[in-house]
Write a structure and sequence with these properties.
This protein is α+β, with helices and mostly antiparallel strands. It has one domain: mRNA Triphosphatase Cet1, Chain A (Alpha-Beta Barrel), CATH 3.20.100.30. The chain has 5 helices and 9 strands. Strands 1, 2, 3, 4, 5, 6, 7, 8 and 9 form a 9-stranded antiparallel beta sheet that branches. A hairpin with a 2-residue loop joins strand 4 and strand 5. It is globular.
């Protein structure tokens, strides 16, 4: 497999700002294994604010779908500012005519469900790709989390490790098929296949403090 062309030799830092509503519905639906669920996040790479994505990641009947758009740094900061939903001066991003559908959807959820940023998740990723089957294998390590959402744009934001030292996450993603030679390499007999959510694990870990 070839290393991803992004980052330094296929390795880059991912930081995501996740949203939830006043009832923590996204967290509870994940905890209960609810099959039809979705969550919003803002994502940056290598602490570079020249490329910022707003994403909605959804899961339905076991299949995962991600919708992604690029947003400005100003829009990112407006979403960060709506973090304290119980503060009278908390701001709501302005609805503009040029907003794409995903931003309009998030705007509606901010207004009706009090959707707001709740946690930062950060990790280092090394990615490999294979054109057949659109296979993408990633190794995520040094996963950390913080509920200091106002620090999302700061390179030195405080992070708390959420996994034991030396524990990493291997993800295998593909469309139509997983080629046999890759499947044989992964099937070592020592790996445990699990459903794992960095968002849920981060929230759960921070709530124990």
């Amino acid at each position: 497999m070839e290393k991803d062309s992004h980052g330094n030799n296929g390795t880059y830092l991912i930081r995501s700002l996740y949203f939830d509503d006043m009832n923590d519905s996204c967290m509870r639906e994940n905890e209960d294994g609810y099959d039809n669920r979705a969550k919003y996040r803002i994502r940056t790479y290598d602490n570079d604010l020249s490329l910022i994505h707003l994403e909605e990641k959804s899961k339905k009947k076991g299949y995962t779908h991600k919708e992604q758009i690029r947003i400005s740094e100003a829009d990112m900061r407006s979403y960060m500012d709506c973090g304290d939903i119980f503060r009278a001066t908390a701001s709501v991003p302005e609805l503009r005519d040029d907003m794409p559908g995903l931003q309009r959807k998030l705007y509606a959820d901010i207004e009706t469900r009090l959707m707001h940023p709740v946690v930062i998740v950060e990790y280092e990723r090394t990615a490999y790709i294979h054109k057949m089957g659109n296979v993408r294998i990633t190794f995520d390590r040094n996963i950390g989390a913080s509920d200091a959402v106002s620090s999302f744009d700061k390179a030195d934001a405080p992070m708390r490790p959420i996994l034991p030292a030396g524990t990493h996450i291997l993800e295998v993603k593909y469309d139509e098929l997983l080629p046999d030679h890759i499947k044989d390499i992964i099937d070592t007999g020592r790996l445990q296949r699990i459903s794992y959510s960095k968002y849920y694990s981060s929230r759960e870990n921070l709530m124990r403090l």
